[in-house]
Amino acid sequence: MRNCARVRLCRPDASGLMREMELLAQVVGSTRLIGIDWHFWKVVGWVGNVVFFSRFFVQWWATEKRKQVVVPNSFWWLSLIGSLCLLAYGLWRRDSVFIFAYAFTWIPYIRNLVISRRVARECPTCATCGTDAPPRACFCPQCGVKFAA
Ligand SMILES: [Zn+2]
Predict the structure, then answer these.
(1) What are 31-68's pLDDT values in tens digits?
(2) How far is the CA of 21 from the centre of ligand 1 (A)?
(3) Ligand 1 center to residue 143 CA distance, Å?
(4) pTM for the model
(5) CA separation for the pair 30, 25 (Å, rounded)
(6) Cα-based distances in Å from 114 to 27, 75, 76, 120
(7) Which of 88, 78, 84, 80 shows the shortest CA–CA distance to 56?
(8) pLDDT band, residue 72 (cuts 50/70/90)
(9) Cα→Cα distances 1→19, 20, 29, Å
(10) What is the CA(144)–ligand 1 centre distance, in A?
(11) CA distances (Å), 51 to each of 47, 67, 77, 106, 136, in order?
């Protein structure tokens, strides 16, 4: 409840979406756990941290699995979701360092997802062995089966 009052007092000029989100934060309330005042925005920030950091393990696991450097789509999704949560938290805090750090990172994340989707559409998958072939391949690089035109 203490945080709700603080939010109201610190943000008298909040408008539009931010005011709606602060109202939601006031409805949810806050609680103190392990020495930290938890409230809606603190949870958003921590979820962003956990999601953004988890991409490291996802990329590491994919690389170890294929024994070559791999950046799976899930890495870009985790990057996008985590950075948007952290941007929202930075906007709530009105912290220019946070805002600038995450204001533009969504651009390469979305671009990489779009390119990956485009390449996946152009790459045939072998019906015989399940290998993903390079874009516009006529034969499976693994088993040599000819792809239908
Ligand atoms: Zn094949």
Answers:
(1) 887 777 888 999 999 999 999 999 999 999 999 999 99
(2) 52
(3) 4
(4) 0.69
(5) 8
(6) 37, 14, 10, 10
(7) 78
(8) very high
(9) 17, 18, 6
(10) 6
(11) 6, 24, 9, 14, 35
